[in-house]
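User: Quick sanity check before I run a bigger batch. Here is a single chain. Can you write out its predicted 3D structure?
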Amino acid sequence: MQIGIIGAGAMGSGIAQIAATNGHKVVIIDSHRAALDKSEKGHQKILARLVEKGRLADGEDKTILKRISYDTNLNALCNCGLIIEAVVENLEVKQSIFKNLCDLAQPDAILASNTSSLSIASIGAAVKDA
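Assistant: Done. Predicted structure follows.
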């Protein structure tokens, strides 16, 4: 399954790394190219360190990195079976993202949020057929 992550901050990048390490193709979306670049460099550094420590086999870091792509366009999520939102804790921002996802995600895609403080019901109110 291809997994989409919206938000290239610490949480989104971490989720993406775990998914890619477990064999999934991942696309990370962020509106800021600098955040995507930082996420990519972070992945390279963390995975290389895991190889150095013997937690990953030699070259496995490169294999994992090939599973992750970075994009600024939400349309890159259209083939994802699971999309996880991991952006700033702002209800309006999250609702806007989910409204947009309704128009581009596969009908059977799972939409999820990494919210820690907002009501899922409030976020989901923006989604038709929720």
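The mean pLDDT is 94.

User: Great, the batch can go ahead then.
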